[in-house]
């Protein structure tokens, strides 16, 4: 089987990752539900991971894939702490709509 | 053949990412996001990074999405009670999305002549053996710091989500 990068080139991965990242930005801006915003952050992280793997294959260097491991570890830690904060917010306010989080506004 | 596979996977990735954002029910969003993550694992397989594909499925579809689903069910959010948003926010978000996509794609389209074509030297660089050697020789210190980070995140998550004692 011929290699994928020979068939379509690495620039197609650039376009795919850019579109995926923009969709993540769109989700952050559009939705007010904190959990959906978390999911959009995950989409953006995955867009970058995909591009790291594509360029690691392109340059035949294992460092890019090791970077993806670290980024996955950081994403897992981020989601664990973030969801704990959301649970705490939900206990205090009764909703996770971020428009309700304006106690510091004065 | 492999080209068709790539375009099918890309369509699934982008389509389910959009559905994640647009569905009103958070549970449906989570399910669509799981499909999106599986298609990204398919992309990793196409790039011949088998170990990373397996780790991706385990970490994202297995751990992170289960955590999210548990939280959604814990908060009893599986109904559509999001308030109606003002039209201005929707229009502003759409314009911002179009601009971000336009700028990124326009910047990347110019890179096409710079990127040279792919050349396969045939060396092994992404088997588990090689990856483990790189991870534990070159990246030893970041690896240890990642373990500390995960430990701190675990303690922090338990501490933050613990119920506070009611003061009498």
Automatic annotation (TrEMBL), chain A:
Membrane topology: Multi-pass membrane protein
Major subcellular site: membrane
GO molecular function: NADH dehydrogenase (quinone) (non-electrogenic) activity; quinone binding
Cellular compartments per GO CC: NADH dehydrogenase complex; plasma membrane
Similarity-based family: Belongs to the complex I subunit 4L family.
Annotated function: NDH-1 shuttles electrons from NADH, via FMN and iron-sulfur (Fe-S) centers, to quinones in the respiratory chain. The immediate electron acceptor for the enzyme in this species is believed to be a menaquinone. Couples the redox reaction to proton translocation (for every two electrons transferred, four hydrogen ions are translocated across the cytoplasmic membrane), and thus conserves the redox energy in a proton gradient. NDH-1 shuttles electrons from NADH, via FMN and iron-sulfur (Fe-S) centers, to quinones in the respiratory chain. The immediate electron acceptor for the enzyme in this species is believed to be ubiquinone. Couples the redox reaction to proton translocation (for every two electrons transferred, four hydrogen ions are translocated across the cytoplasmic membrane), and thus conserves the redox energy in a proton gradient.
Name of the featured protein: NADH-quinone oxidoreductase subunit K
Gene that encodes it: nuoK
UniProtKB/TrEMBL annotation, chain B:
Localization (cell): Cell membrane
Enzyme Commission designation: 7.1.1.-
Membrane topology: Multi-pass membrane protein
GO MF annotation terms: NADH dehydrogenase (ubiquinone) activity; quinone binding
Species annotation: Flavobacterium supellecticarium
Coiled-coil segments on the chain, per record: none
Catalytic activity, as annotated: a quinone + NADH + 5 H(+)(in) = a quinol + NAD(+) + 4 H(+)(out)
Family from the record: Belongs to the complex I subunit 6 family.
Gene Ontology annotations for the cellular component aspect, listed alphabetically: plasma membrane
Gene3D superfamilies registered for this protein in UniProt: NADH-ubiquinone/plastoquinone oxidoreductase chain 6, subunit NuoJ
Protein name per its UniProtKB record: NADH-quinone oxidoreductase subunit J
Enzyme class per UniProt: translocase
UniProt keyword terms in alphabetical order: Cell membrane, Membrane, NAD, Quinone, Transmembrane, Transmembrane helix
Signal peptide: none
Transmembrane regions listed in the UniProt entry: 6-23, 30-47, 53-76, 88-109, 139-160
Function of the molecule: NDH-1 shuttles electrons from NADH, via FMN and iron-sulfur (Fe-S) centers, to quinones in the respiratory chain. Couples the redox reaction to proton translocation (for every two electrons transferred, four hydrogen ions are translocated across the cytoplasmic membrane), and thus conserves the redox energy in a proton gradient.
One Pfam family per UniProt: Oxidored_q3
């Amino acid at each position: 089987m011929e290699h994928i990068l020979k068939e379509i080139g690495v620039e197609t991965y650039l376009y795919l990752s850019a579109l995926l990242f923009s969709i993540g930005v769109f989700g952050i801006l559009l939705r007010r539900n904190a959990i959906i915003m978390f999911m959009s952050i995950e989409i953006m992280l995955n867009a970058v991971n995909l591009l790291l793997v594509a360029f690691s294959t392109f340059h035949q260097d294992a460092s890019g894939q090791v970077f993806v491991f670290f980024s996955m570890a950081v994403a897992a830690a981020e989601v664990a702490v973030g969801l704990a904060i959301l649970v705490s917010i939900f206990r205090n306010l009764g909703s996770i709509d971020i428009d309700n989080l304006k106690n510091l506004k004065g | 053949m492999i080209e068709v596979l790539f375009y099918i996977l890309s369509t699934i990735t982008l389509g389910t990412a959009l559905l994640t954002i647009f569905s009103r029910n958070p549970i449906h969003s989570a399910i669509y996001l799981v499909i999106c993550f599986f298609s990204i694992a398919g992309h990793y397989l196409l790039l011949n990074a088998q170990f990373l594909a397996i780790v991706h499925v385990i970490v994202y579809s297995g751990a992170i999405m289960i955590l999210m689903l548990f939280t959604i069910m814990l908060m009893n959010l599986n109904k559509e009670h999001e308030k109606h948003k003002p039209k201005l926010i929707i229009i502003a978000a759409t314009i911002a999305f179009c601009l971000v996509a336009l700028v990124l794609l326009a910047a990347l389209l110019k890179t096409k002549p710079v990127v040279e074509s792919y050349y396969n030297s045939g060396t092994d660089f992404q088997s588990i053996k090689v990856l483990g050697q790189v991870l534990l020789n070159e990246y030893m210190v970041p690896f240890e710091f990642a373990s500390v980070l995960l430990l701190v995140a675990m303690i922090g998550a338990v501490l933050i989500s613990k119920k506070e004692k009611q003061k009498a």
